[in-house]
Design goal:
This protein has 274 residues and is α/β, with parallel strands linked by helices. The chain has helices at residues 38-52, 75-83, 86-105, 121-128, 155-159, 164-173, 179-185, 197-210, 213-225, 234-246, 248-259, and strands spanning 7-10, 14-18, 22-27, 59-64, 110-114, 117-119, 131-135, 139-141, 177-178, 190-192.
């Protein structure tokens, strides 16, 4: 139904295919599980800024190539963070925030199709999307606290989607959770088996093709009005993550992750025998 490719634009890590009245954007670092690095962040930001201005589009499908949708931060990028000053970390965090915000503010509805693992910053992309279809086996985590960091940059986008009870549990524990739990908490729209994804994607596309495009764009604007405070959090969240990265604990966590060794705060919890 939506198979004919009208045009294709490729940059290094983001591929865009234009179809009849929608396009498919693919994260394309499969060997890195589509983890972010500065170049990928810049490419995603510029891609969605451009797409937002294309009034002929009815929807954007966002997917990840390979085994996972997005594993969060790239290992080499994390290595460089260890040496960043606080000022450099703030600038770096601002660019990441701008990427999420560009997706969030995009005038065209975004349908994200996720699978494999959605970790750390990958959950920020999910939260910035309008509709999220997750393969049932997908695993999620707000994993920053495991590294001695904080989910600062993604937090305003996450908190616009999930309730406070789930936020306190999953952002503080960093534990993994399933696609069905992600749906229950509001992070995901639908969690389905792999063979059902295409039908569900086409169901949403059919609706967007039938709706007045200007009316849909205006409605997105209305929805975003109630989340207008997100932009006001930018400076604070960037400062928090910058401070965590240069802190002693953050440095230990980053080096532990990079060097695949234990971190000093990790303690085995022993249950007292009854």
């Amino acid at each position: 139904m939506f198979s004919e490719c009208k045009a294709r634009i490729d940059v290094d890590f983001v591929k865009t295919f234009y179809l009849e009245k929608h396009c498919v954007v693919t994260l394309s670092r499969p060997e890195k599980r589509n983890a972010f690095n500065p170049q990928m962040i810049e490419e995603l930001t510029s891609t969605f800024a451009s797409l937002s201005a294309q009034s002929e589009l009815r929807a954007i499908i966002l997917k990840g190539d390979g085994k996972s949708f997005c594993a969060g931060a790239d290992l080499d990028w994390m290595k460089s963070m260890v040496e960043y000053s606080e000022a450099e970390n703030i600038a770096d965090s601002n660019r990441l925030f701008d990427m999420f915000y560009t997706l969030h503010e995009c005038a065209i509805p975004i349908i994200s199709i996720v699978h494999g693992h959605v970790m750390g910053g990958g959950t920020g992309i999910v939260a910035a999307s309008d509709i999220v279809i997750a393969e049932a086996s997908t695993q999620f985590a707000f994993s920053e606290v495991k590294l001695g960091l904080a989910p600062a940059t993604i937090s305003p986008f996450i908190l616009s989607r999930i309730n406070a009870n789930d936020a306190h549990r999953f952002l503080l524990t960093g534990e993994r959770f399933s696609a069905s739990k992600a749906r229950e908490m509001g992070l995901v729209t639908e969690a389905v088996e792999g063979e059902e994804i295409e039908d569900l994607q086409n169901y949403f596309l059919k609706n967007f093709y039938e709706n007045g495009p200007q009316a849909v764009n205006a409605t997105k604007g209305l929805l975003n009005i109630f989340e207008a405070g997100i932009l006001e959090t930018k400076d604070y969240t960037s400062r928090v993550i910058a401070e965590r990265r240069v802190s002693e604990e953050g440095q230990q966590g980053l080096r532990g992750f990079i060097e695949n060794r234990s971190v000093p705060w990790k303690t085995k919890y022993e249950v007292d025998p009854k």
